[in-house]
Amino acid sequence: MKFLSEYRDPELAQRYLDEIHKTVSQPWTIMEVCGGQTHSLVKNGLLSLLPEAINMVHGPGCPVCVTPLNLIDKAVYLAEQKGVVLCSYGDMLRVPGSEKSLLEAKANGADIRILYSPLEAVKIAEREPEKEVVFFAVGFETTAPANALSVIHAHRLKLNNYSILASHVLVPPAIEALMEDDETKIQGFLAAGHVCTIMGTEEYYPLVERYGVPIVITGFEPVDLLQGILMTVKQLETGTAQLENQYTRVVREEGNPQARATISDVFQVTDRMWRGIDVIPHSGYEVREKYSAYDANKKFAINIAEVPENEECIAGAIMKGLKKPYDCPHFGKKCQPENPLGAPMVSSEGACAAYYHFSGAFEQQAV
User: Fold this and answer.
1) Which of 253, 278, 344, 366 could form a disulfide with 326 if both were Cys (CB 3.0 to 4.6 A apart)?
2) What is d(CA 124, CA 118) in angstroms, rounded to the nearest whole number?
3) CB within 8 A of 98, min separation 6: which ones?
4) Cα–Cα distance between 331 and 340 in angstroms, integer?
């Protein structure tokens, strides 16, 4: 509770806001990469308190949102196989595939179980040896250690009925892809503090140097975000570009060496398709050959064709920072959480869901 009160302190937040207003002299476009940061900005009404000159745009840092249709279709296919238990985080269930969502498959009788940890899925595999248990391993670098550990744990237990459908994506290659986009308007980044807690900071220095953009590693509470924005604005106003760490209470230069070693043991880097964006080179994890028995793609020889995205959904443009949710003509109308056109409307970290649920924030922004 101490940290909750400290990093939501109204007086401290106001001091940062006052300093931001005093510092800004021209328009700047800053992207917060993580969907958790987006929700905090919107839920706490911070967007409407910032100077009009600061344009906060919302990045692709929502793993549920960028999981491609093809992988959703693979998960649905597995869930509908006889004797298969598909385990997933709850956010994934309502994400639309090309024909149906996992929630629809569950309603039709598929054995789909919502879990909080992949280690729970390993326990299910241990308890129910007659079933094939698959964990839909979605996430950024933050969830990769737990998913990797589940594979190691299953291997030690000699379980032959456990596997993961890996859909991990990585933040630094996404930042690089955004900066290489000819349409980008991003001038500074708030990097995801929880990712850097695992991976450290070394991957961000080359990005700062190559693209000349400030990157400030930032936490998720209101005070964190306002301090991170202030640090970014100060760099922009002085024409400097550095990597700074606002989230010093958690993030270390080396990250978490044990977690990184666990990831490296189980996963290797691969190209990855990002829903609404495109294939980003070296931006994902896949299971290493030595653990191929726990790779659902190989175990079940899944061959699902790629399908085009819903043309009515502008999620890609939103996650590139080119548009806001209220720029979509279907936002809050044809596209709602109960009947989404795209993943950002159903994920707990999706920008569209944030704007939809905290309507006062987007109404003020849309004026």
Assistant:
1) 366
2) 10
3) 69, 72, 73, 307
4) 9
In this predicted structure, the answer to whether residue 366 has a pLDDT above a threshold of 80 is no
Q: How far apart are the first and last CA of the chain?
A: 36
Do the Cβ atoms of 268 and 291 come closer than 8 Å?
A: no
pLDDT in tens, 40-78: 999 999 999 999 999 999 999 888 889 988 999 999 999
Please write the tens of the pLDDT for every residue from 114-124. Answer: 999 999 999 99
Look at residues 307, 329, 305 and name the one whose alpha carbon lies nearest to residue 317: 329
Q: Report in angstroms the alpha-carbon separations of 225 from 95, 193, 347, 351.
A: 28, 11, 21, 16
Q: Is the pLDDT of residue 90 over 80?
A: yes
- What totals of helices (H) and strands (E) does the chain contain, helices first? 18, 11
Task: Tell me how crowded residue 283 is: count the other CB atoms within 10 A of its CB.
Answer: 23
Whole-number Å distance between alpha carbons of 8 and 6: 6
Residue given tokens 């849309």 in the structure block: 366
Q: What's the CA dihedral at 51, 53, 54, 56 to 10 degrees?
A: 110
Cα(50)–Cα(108) distance, integer angstroms: 47
- At 347, which amino acid appears? S
Residues in the chain: 367
What is the three-class DSSP state of 138? strand
pLDDT digits (tens, 9 = 90+) for 169-226: 999 999 999 999 999 999 999 999 999 999 999 999 999 999 999 999 999 999 999 9
Amino acid letter for position 180: E
**How far apart (Å, rounded) are the C-alpha atoms in residues 357 and 349?**
12
State the pLDDT at residue 2. Answer: 57
pLDDT of residue 354: 92
* pTM exceeds 0.90: yes
What single letter denotes the amino acid at residue 269?
V
Tell me what the pLDDT averaged over the chain comes to.
Answer: 93
106/86 Cα distance (integer angstroms)? 10
Collapsed DSSP state (helix, strand, coil) of residue 32:
strand
Residue in the structure block whose two tokens are 């991976």: 199
d(CA 106, CA 113): 9
C-alpha 128/C-alpha 76 separation (Å) is 21
Contact assessment for residue 36 and residue 350, using Cβ atoms and an 8 Å cutoff? no
